[in-house]
Amino acid sequence: HTDLDRRALKRSAVRGYDQGVLAAERALPFADGSFDLVCVVDTLHSTADEHGALREILRVLRPGGIVFASVPAYPWLLARREREAGARRRYTAPHVRHLFGRAGFKLERSTHANALLFPLIAGAKLALRLAEMLEIPVGAPSKRRTRVPWPWPFNSILYGALSLELLVSKRFDLPFGHSIAAMV
């Protein structure tokens, strides 16, 4: 995997993922056609030049290779806290199709994800945006994380919901959700 942040690579190495490479998205240190599979998970939304990043991914992908990408959905959910953590944008399904097509990819499949949990997530995000607009402090200003650790029973429920959604999304594209998954 690649990352722009040395600290993130060190955290990964501590967890046993020690093959990380420090690299910018527009200058991947790999030869043309190096990979059969490239996963781009929740990174494009933080990239200054998403088109350039996708063109670079296309360069390192072997002909006939697969790209799996996941991006956050719905620009109206972008909160200041996300922007402070480096997010630049959220996406709509038509934007994802256009973006990949413009970069030279043939989009095989695109579907929303996190649909079952979307009402809860959207409600929380909108509440956060409202608090930001009203300048109500939410959490410590130094904290950039938007994730909340959940006790074990909640994790089991969330895992079950996502597993059920995966079964459905294998056959049908989901019309809404917190994320958009694309495969080219």
Instruction: From the alpha carbons, calculate the radius of gyration and give it in angstroms.
Output: 18 Å
Strand content: 15-25%
How do the strands of the widest beta sheet line up side by side? 3-4-6-5
The number of helical segments is 6
Helix content: 25-40%
Helices and strands, in N-to-C order?
EHEEHEHHEHHE
Biggest sheet features: 4 strands, mixed
**What is the terminal-to-terminal distance?**
19 Å
Number of strands: 6
Summarize it:
With 184 residues, this protein is an alpha/beta fold.
Detailed description of the structure:
The protein has 184 residues and is of the alpha/beta class. 38% of the residues lie in helices and 18% in strands. Strands 3-4-6-5 form a 4-stranded mixed sheet, with helices on both faces. The protein has a two-stranded parallel ribbon with strand order 1-2. Strand 1 (2-3), helix 1 (6-14) and strand 2 (21-22) form a beta-alpha-beta unit. The mean pLDDT is 88.
Write the layout of secondary structure elements.
Elements: E1 2-3, H1 6-14, E2 21-22, E3 35-41, H2 50-60, E4 61-72, H3 80-84, H4 93-102, E5 109-113, H5 118-133, H6 152-169, E6 179-183
Parallel strand pairs: 1-2, 3-4
Antiparallel strand pairs: 4-6, 5-6
Key attributes of the depicted protein:
184 residues; alpha/beta; 4-stranded mixed beta sheet; two-stranded parallel ribbon; 6 helices
